[in-house]
Design a protein that fits this description.
The protein contains four helices and three strands; from the N terminus they run H-E-E-E-H-H-H. With 139 residues, the protein is an alpha+beta fold. Strands 1-2-3 form a three-stranded antiparallel β-sheet. A hairpin with a 4-residue loop joins strand 2 (49-54) and strand 3 (59-64). It starts with 10 loop residues before the first helix and ends in a 15-residue tail after the last helix.
């Protein structure tokens, strides 16, 4: 039986790890909530088209200036595509800011983005070395 009272067997360490895991769950839930609330605009360079990308990366609002109706279909399509590209680029920047804020460092963000973030890296950020065979035996 594992004690979580801080006695023999590193129960204090278990409590600490559980507390840290709960804190991370709260941070992740906050990140997901904030990402879901994102509404990021993008505008074409000519200013004739504006679009909004939501937290699910879907195009929401599309605003086309009346002057855009004078454009040929190719130019209008280019303006629309430019606005969409700008909105997705801005969304990526906001996503990066949220991740940096949550993970607290650009190296962890880079690893998370390229899929190389390990549990050891994550816990090491909070002072827990998962590779230490004696971590549960220390007080």
């Amino acid at each position: 039986m594992v004690s979580t009272s801080g006695g023999y067997g590193g129960g204090g360490a278990v409590e600490n790890m559980l507390r840290q895991a709960q804190e991370q769950q709260l941070r992740l839930a906050e990140l997901q909530r904030r990402r879901a609330e994102l509404r990021v605009p993008g505008e074409s360079p000519d200013g004739l088209v504006r679009v909004t990308v939501d937290g699910e990366m879907k195009i929401g609002d599309i605003e086309i200036n009346a002057r855009a109706m004078r454009l040929d279909s190719f130019s209008l399509a280019e303006s629309l595509q430019a606005a969409i590209d700008a909105a997705y680029a801005a969304y990526g920047e906001h996503q990066q800011e949220l991740l940096t804020e949550m993970l607290g460092g650009s190296e962890l963000v880079r690893k998370a983005q390229d899929g190389t973030l390990t549990p050891q890296d994550w816990f090491r950020r909070f002072g827990v070395d998962l590779d230490d065979p004696f971590r549960g035996l220390r007080r």
